[in-house]
Amino acid sequence: MKSNRLIKTALLLAIFSQSTILQAQNNDEQPANRQREIFSAGVGIGFDYSGFGVGMTIYPQKNIGVFANGGIFLAGPSYTVGLKARYVTKSMIDPYVSFQYGFSGSVSVFDDDGHLVFDKAKIFIKPNVGAGVDIHFTENISISGGLTTNTAAADIIKYMDELEDKREAEFKNKLVFPFGISCGLRWRIR
Fold first, then answer.
1. In this predicted structure, what is the pLDDT of residue 32?
2. Residue 129: domain span
3. Could you tell me if residue 4 is inside a domain?
4. Cα separation of 124 and 180, whole Å?
5. pTM of the model as a whole
6. Does a structural domain hold residue 23?
């Protein structure tokens, strides 16, 4: 009976001391070359930036950010909003994953003179998932690059086929990728 109580007490002390050790190792220190990023703005290209666009990210917690971006592509203006989960490292490279809703591609139709036909142009808005890295060059400047899924690829091809079937457009290139590449320049505001 006493040995049973002794084992339980020793086990409880071991668990308690291990959680204290783990807690002591959990700190919010940033690398020496940068401070904690709370708010940033950027400019870039790709799904993350709604085509060619600008955006902002707010980090209520050092690893979780909420972003909103607005941009324009040939078919017109668009937007992207989402969540960014990153792993802040002690080096200058932080990997991330993003969950976003917004720009997923577009179809642009041009007439024989090379002018955009707006009533046939279409922007596709869908949810996407991405992954990438933020590379911090200075305390306030970084670049961000990543790959994003293109969940609208099938819808884009279907719309192109519909336009061809109605003889409203002829596409010489039906190349639609199942992913998109994003690249941007970011500034830490706060």
1. 53
2. 36-188
3. no
4. 13
5. 0.77
6. no
Considering the chain, what percentage of its residues have pLDDT values greater than 90?
A: 67
Pair of tokens at residue 130 = 């991405």
Q: Tell me the helix, strand and coil percentages in the chain, rounded to 5.
A: 20, 50, 30
Encode burial over 103-135: b for 16+ CB neighbours within 10 A, e otherwise: bbbbbbbeeeeeeeeeebbbbbebebebebbbe
Residue 45 domain flag: yes
Residues in the chain, overall count = 190
139 found inside a domain: yes
Strand 122-136 relative to strand 39-46: parallel, antiparallel, unpaired? unpaired
Q: For the beta carbon of residue 148, count every other beta carbon within 10 angstroms.
A: 23
Contact of 115 with 104, CB cutoff 8 Å: no
Burial of 69 (0-12, 13-18, 19+ CB in 10 A): buried
Q: What is the CATH number of the domain that holds 178?
A: 2.40.160.20
Q: What is the pLDDT of residues 79-104, one digit of tens each?
A: 999 999 999 998 999 999 999 999 99
If one counts the domains in the chain, the total is: 1
